[in-house]
Amino acid sequence: MKISVIIICLGILSGCSSIQQATDNHAPVLLVQYPFPAIPASICKPDYLLVADILVSEDGSVSDVKILNTSGIREWDEIAANTIKSWKYSPLKIEDKTYRCWVHQKMRVSIAQPVMLSLAAVLCSSYAQADSLYKHLINGYNFKEAAKDFDAVPAQGDQYELGDVDVYQYPDFIRHNLLNLSEGEFTKPLKYDDSYIIFQRIKKI
């Protein structure tokens, strides 16, 4: 059974002198998350609160994780910590400079079936660019061709199509938009780190 993660609280811890102290106005945003292993039966709950301190590097990757409330099963805690290390945040940026910082994260961990959608996505460097592309898509332009015309960047290397993706890997504000898509439809521009992302749900043949 797949385990979904619902982030219910985000705070920033101050660190040593080599790590920039963040404020509520400058906080990393969770961009990509991956599922935890099944909740141990000994917890005896359909969901529970997991608390961790997460060190987010200058590029948004996770370089260290400290689980603060143990599940009681060491092996599960280690797997959960390693899973969090695969997550991706927006980096902490202050005055155009990026810093490492500790994120104090409270997570409601609950059981959920995977929701797989076939998706394509592009990244735009500004809202103006994304909005212009979005308006062309509304007028019936082909997703891939319109993206090329507006110099939008494929969201995965040089690939516009992401394939079948579990929508639970994205944070709630993106997941909500994806779950409302019918085949062939696309989202409005969504803020994604320093860019704007537009998803399309691909029609199944």
Describe this structure in words.
The protein is of the alpha+beta class. It has two domains: 3-111, TonB (TolA/TonB C-terminal domain), CATH 3.30.2420; 116-201, Chitinase A, domain 3 (Roll), CATH 3.10.50.40. The chain contains four helices and 13 strands. The chain has helices spanning 74-84, 127-138, 143-149, 172-179, and strands spanning 3-13, 30-32, 47-56, 62-67, 88-89, 92-94, 97-99, 101-111, 116-124, 153-154, 161-166, 190-192, 195-201. Mean pLDDT is 83; it is low at 14-18.
In short:
This protein is of the alpha+beta class.
Net shape: globular
CATH topology of the largest domain: TolA/TonB C-terminal domain
CATH superfamily of the largest domain: TonB
- Which assembly state applies to the chains in this document? single chain
Number of extended strands: 13
The residue ranges in which pLDDT falls below 50 over 5 or more consecutive positions are 14-18
Instruction: Give the integer mean of the pLDDT values.
Output: 83
Question: Which CATH-level-2 architecture of the largest domain?
Answer: 2-Layer Sandwich
Query: Per DSSP, what share of the residues sits in E-state strands of 2 or more residues?
Result: 35-45%
CATH class of the largest domain: Alpha Beta
Helix content: 10-25%
Biggest β-sheet, characterized? 5 strands, antiparallel
How far is the first residue's CA from the last residue's CA? 28 Å
Radius of gyration: 18 Å
| Annotation field: number of helices | 4
Structural classification = alpha+beta
